[in-house]
User: Which sequence fits this backbone?
């Protein structure tokens, strides 16, 4: 633990050493748009500067989170240069930036004003705790914030009501009012207004399953971070935290716990980076005094959380008893996110399946997408976001259906995007289904993104996770009366290089290997270079496997993924009277584990009719639409998943 604190403190001090030289980088783990390329102002800071052609850099500059780092660096070292730099930058911004002038429009968005309120106040409190007298500067800062916050009261519309922007501006107002309303009575009115607005936002923005409606964990957690900031304000002022804030923190924190990958990071869903979730869960566990949440966070107060929890409260956190969950897999049905696991250990298997509404401009074309982690190691993943720059082909690609682990019909996207933020068409998802048991998990979902084709197609994906064997069966259905080309896309982590051999792929890992099988000999497999981004402004090369096949009428594609080498065969399906069943109606595969053990997976695509109520699969009579037959030595067992 001491090592973690030393590393965290060194990062703070290194960043602040650059700030003392007028050099800026944005490298904090919860920075919404990271930029680790240093930029130096040779003279005065130009707060409306746009280097690198990305206005997001300017937005980050004007959020002033680095003032918190300067306050921390001064507290940690008592080095005067950090305090001097802080005072210089505060005066520079207040004296030179007029947010009501057009030239400073990139400094004046409501999201930045709200975040400034939170960051300025937090930095002041850290410095005040170091026993430094900054009354004159504090007054100047608070009066500037009050002037700016008039915009937050006046500019509030439907966009801000539903967007994470509005949460940030209201949390900023609340923090400002809570801390300074005794000195500035007008802030009591601001507090009442902001609390009413925030409560409404929490009701409509946070879905019943705890996922933020924008379907992007990066921005869900910015909302949660802001709610935690004001919860700590209430706590440090010994005031009761409003119940709706506590309930909202609980919902968001638990959905974080459920989505957390074995490496403790959020999936790179929508516009998200690969960010460790443990610190934000730890803070929520402390606020809620929740041992179940603590299981998913740290079992100690970490270097990030200690500045909010405070060192004098470390013992309070240590006294929270950890409660291990009595489940593994979970369905967050309202948002359409499903997490299939064998355990919550760091070496566990994990599959995230996505079948829900697209969300906002932060949403990507990821219907029916899945991530796969095998024995704690990332193999198949969402490739991230990289940038928000307009007219950037990487941005447009990473938002598209072509960048996600999903299926395509005739190489046409089922959801369509325009530029960095526009959405011109979003596929409507079908009702999903799931079944979680000790031996296996099953999840299913579909969408109607191809109904406008001359010969419409309904696309459906089923995933069967056979826990005992570390095997995943991907069943892709295409329901149509026409002729089409069907494709599957699989994105691999940058350190994974697939090798293709006939209808098989092997991917070497560190803790395990992954093998992929396609039973249909007509499948065409191609390996393609692509791009992958674990954080904003960072891009790597990765590989995609793209499979393709043509079909007339209904089509099923079975793809089997396994941590061990196995054998997969296509199996004919018959009726009970031994007449042949066409693959447009039903299909099956056999997974051969060894000479004595096999699993036959069956999938039907139409309702059984004409009094033919059963299927014959390898001499076993079967009734149902989806299921499997397990043969072990001389024993045969049947598991029907859907009738």
Assistant:
């Amino acid at each position: 633990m001491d090592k973690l604190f030393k590393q965290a403190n060194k990062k703070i001090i290194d960043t602040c050493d650059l700030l003392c030289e007028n050099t800026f980088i944005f490298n904090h783990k919860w920075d919404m748009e990271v930029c680790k390329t240093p930029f130096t102002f040779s003279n005065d800071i130009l707060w409306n500067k746009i280097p690198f052609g990305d206005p997001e850099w300017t937005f980050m500059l004007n959020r002033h989170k680095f003032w918190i780092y300067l306050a921390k660096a001064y507290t940690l070292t008592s080095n005067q240069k950090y305090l001097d730099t802080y005072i210089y930058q505060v005066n520079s911004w207040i004296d030179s930036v007029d947010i009501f002038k057009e030239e400073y429009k990139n400094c004046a968005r409501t999201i930045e004003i709200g975040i400034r309120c939170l960051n300025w106040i937090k930095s002041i409190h850290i410095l005040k705790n170091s026993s430094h007298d900054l009354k004159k500067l504090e007054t100047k800062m608070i009066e500037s914030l009050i002037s700016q916050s008039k915009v937050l009261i006046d500019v509030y519309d439907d966009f801000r009501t539903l967007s994470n922007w509005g949460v940030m501006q209201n949390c900023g107002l609340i923090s400002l009012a809570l801390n300074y309303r005794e000195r500035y009575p007008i802030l009591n009115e601001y507090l009442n207004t902001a609390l009413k607005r925030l409560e409404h936002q929490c009701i409509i923005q946070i879905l019943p399953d705890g996922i933020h409606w924008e379907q992007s964990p990066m921005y869900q957690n910015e909302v949660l971070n802001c709610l935690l900031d004001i919860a700590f304000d209430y706590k440090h002022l010994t005031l009761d935290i409003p119940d709706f804030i506590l309930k909202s923190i609980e919902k968001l924190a638990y959905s974080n716990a459920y989505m957390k990958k074995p490496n403790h990071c959020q999936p790179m869903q929508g516009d998200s980076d690969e960010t460790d979730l443990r610190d934000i869960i730890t803070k929520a566990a402390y606020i809620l005094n929740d041992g179940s949440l603590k299981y998913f966070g740290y079992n100690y107060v970490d270097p990030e959380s200690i500045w909010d929890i405070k060192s004098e409260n470390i013992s309070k956190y240590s006294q929270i008893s950890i409660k291990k969950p009595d489940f593994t897999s979970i369905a967050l049905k309202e948002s359409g996110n499903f997490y299939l696991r064998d355990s919550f250990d760091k070496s566990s298997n994990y599959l995230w399946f996505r079948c829900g509404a697209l969300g906002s401009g932060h949403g990507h074309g990821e219907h029916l997408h899945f991530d796969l982690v095998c024995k704690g190691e990332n193999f198949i993943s969402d490739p991230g976001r990289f940038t928000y720059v307009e007219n950037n082909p990487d941005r447009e690609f990473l938002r598209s259906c072509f960048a996600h682990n999903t299926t395509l019909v005739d190489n046409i996207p089922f959801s369509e995007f325009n530029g960095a933020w526009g959405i011109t068409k979003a596929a409507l998802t079908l009702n999903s289904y799931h079944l979680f048991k000790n031996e296996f998990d099953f999840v299913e979902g579909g969408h109607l993104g191809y109904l406008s084709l001359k010969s419409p197609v309904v696309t459906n994906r089923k995933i069967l996770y056979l826990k005992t064997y570390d095997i995943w069966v991907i069943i892709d259905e295409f329901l149509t009366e026409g002729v089409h080309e069907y494709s599957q896309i699989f994105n691999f982590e940058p350190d994974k290089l697939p090798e293709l051999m006939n209808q098989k792929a092997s991917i070497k890992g560190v803790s395990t290997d992954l093998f992929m099988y396609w039973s249909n000999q007509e499948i065409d497999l191609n390996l393609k270079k692509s791009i992958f981004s674990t954080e904003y402004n960072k891009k790597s090369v990765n590989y995609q496997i793209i499979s393709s096949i043509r079909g007339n009428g209904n089509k099923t594609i079975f793809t089997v993924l396994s941590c061990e080498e196995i054998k997969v065969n296509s199996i004919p399906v018959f009726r009970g009277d031994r007449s042949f069943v066409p693959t447009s109606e039903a299909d099956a595969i056999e997974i051969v584990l060894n000479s004595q053990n096999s699993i036959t997976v069956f999938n039907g695509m139409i309702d059984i009719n004409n009094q033919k109520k059963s299927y014959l699969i390898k001499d076993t009579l079967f009734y149902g639409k989806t299921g499997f037959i397990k043969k072990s030595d001389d024993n045969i067992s049947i598991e029907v998943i859907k009738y």
